[in-house]
Structures are given as structure tokens and as C-alpha cells.
Known about the structure:
single chain; 352 residues; 5-stranded mixed sheet; 4-stranded antiparallel sheet; 29 strands
Amino acid sequence: MTEPARRQTVPLTCHGHSRPVTHLSFSPLEKEDSYYMISSCKDGNPMLRDGQTGDWIGTFLGHKGATWQARLSPDASTAATSSADFSAKIWDTHTGELLYVLKHDHIVRAIAYPYDNSGLLATGGYEKKLRIFELADQRPATSPSATSPEPVTIDASKAFEIGEGVHKDIIKFIVWALDPNVIITASGDTLRWFDLPSRRCVREAKLEGEIKSCELVSLAPSHSAPTDIGGGLPVLAVAAGKTAYFWGGSRAEDELKRITLPHGIASVGLDLKGRKFVVGEEPGTWARVYTWDEGKEIDVHKGHHGPIWSIAFSPDGNLYATGSEDGTIKMWKNCDGYYGLWRGGVSGSGTD
């Protein structure tokens, strides 16, 4: 007996960037189940949006080079961006004001907040150094004649370096595990786990090829369950070569699965509750959806006109977003019924 044809829903397309979108991520779930999405772009202008609708909220202006990553703090009060202008910047998400400038000696590719601490930030990039900046110790001060606080400039020499001399390639991704004492980097074809109290590298994993995507995937506590992939804990999702890798546990060091596909992978996102994963094919412009348990392809999303460099699921798991070389972000519904700007229907069409 054949399944009845499903009513398909179209993706939402977010315009505004003028060059390739390099990275996107969501905030944790806020009050009334709202959340935000932030994107970085080679145009140097990170953008903040409503996470459910994709509506533009604001653009953080001030970088003088491409921005490579953008992340929201655990309390969503600040946003961090990394840039080719040799800096990482911290912004106030409510006013758009620049709060901190973290000066480096080369391009900054990767940034990460701890899971539940908005006062720390890790950075990495072309200097091949993993650093941690303490933001809570230095607050922007408002001068009597100024209406907004003067940003605090912190030199890289003031940060703590972790694993000195360990990295031989550019650090392209940093992930802070659920355990606040563990931080993970992606550099070249190698993942490394660091113990922060000792500042030492405690584990390495050499993957199939250059790591193109490395993100910690989690659901809001109110939406997670022991039956989810990872048992209700965050899962580290990594793309390298033709293989998607997944690690679980509080330290993100328990390998859950690795799945090799017939094509290269530019990015990967994981649906913890729906037990499926989404990849950006490479070469190509399509997003392909596979089942977690069998690794079977179940959908193809067409619509982008360039490679998909970043995929992220919302904190409630009801949608996921793809950021592309074509300068657009597309948001794909991942639930039944009414949600955001979608009115009924089921998850995103493979033909739009």
C-alpha cells in the first residue's frame, strides 16, 4: 500500500547578505519559546534575526573584513563574531553596540561560548592558538559625555592559551562541551579534546579529510528526552570528507556513529528527536536528508545556488536553517501543523 501524497511546505528565504554566508547558529530558547538566529558573512556584516520567522532584527556594523563565525551567548544578551580583520568582537544584542574588541595577530576563524557561561569566549584561527578570554573581569564603561559605553579592547596576550604549540593547522571550529572543563577544536583533519584545568590536549582523532563543519547540537531542556539521539545530552556533529561523525556524552568524546556517504559533505546538522541528519553536499548545492538508524536518503532540498556551508537546527527542533555560498539563508520546517510563518502542512519540500 502506497503512502498518501504529503502536503509539502516551502522554505523561507532570508535575504540581506551580499556575499557568501559562512556560518549560522541559533540562541537557546528564550521566554515564551522565542529564539534568535545569527549569521556571519564574507560581506563583514553579521545579522541577527528572529529564529522562528527569519525576520531581520539588526546588523552588527564595525568589522573591516569577512566574518567567519557568529554565535549568541547562552543568555542571548551578547553576540560574538570572528573576522578576517584580525579581531573577534562582542556585541550587545539589544542595542547593537560594540562591547569588546579582542585583538589578534592574524585572521580569527573560530569562536565559542561555554554552554552556560556568557562571561568567557574561546577563539582560534590562523595563529593556530586556542585562547580563552575572560570578559566578566572587564566591563565597558560609559563616559559622562557618551550615550553608549566605550568598547573594551583586550589584547590576545591577556588571554589564556590552551595547548600551546599543539595545533599545526588553522583552527576552524571550537566547541565547548557540556562539561565546562572540556573544549574541542577542529584543525585540518584532526579533532582535539583539551582539559582546561591542565591546559593540555588529552585526546586526538584524525578524520577522513579536512573538517568542514563541527558543531555541538542540542535541544532546549524542555524539548529534550532520554529517547533522543545522545540520550538527552548534546551531540558533537562533524563533517569531514564523505563521512559524518557524531560524538556524545557530557565531554562529547563517546563516538555514537560515523556514516560514510557517496558524496562529499560541506556541512552537517542533526535532528536529535526526529532521528535524521541533514548534509550540504560537496560539490553541489543541495541539502540531503538521511535517516540516523539506516543512513537512508529520505529527502533532497533544492533551492540554493551555491554550496551549503552551515546547517543548524532550532533549539526546539521545529526547523533548521541552511547558509550558502549564494548569500542566502533558507529555513526548512521540521514539524507538522502551524509553526512560525508556516500554516499547516508537513516538513520541508525536496523540490523547492
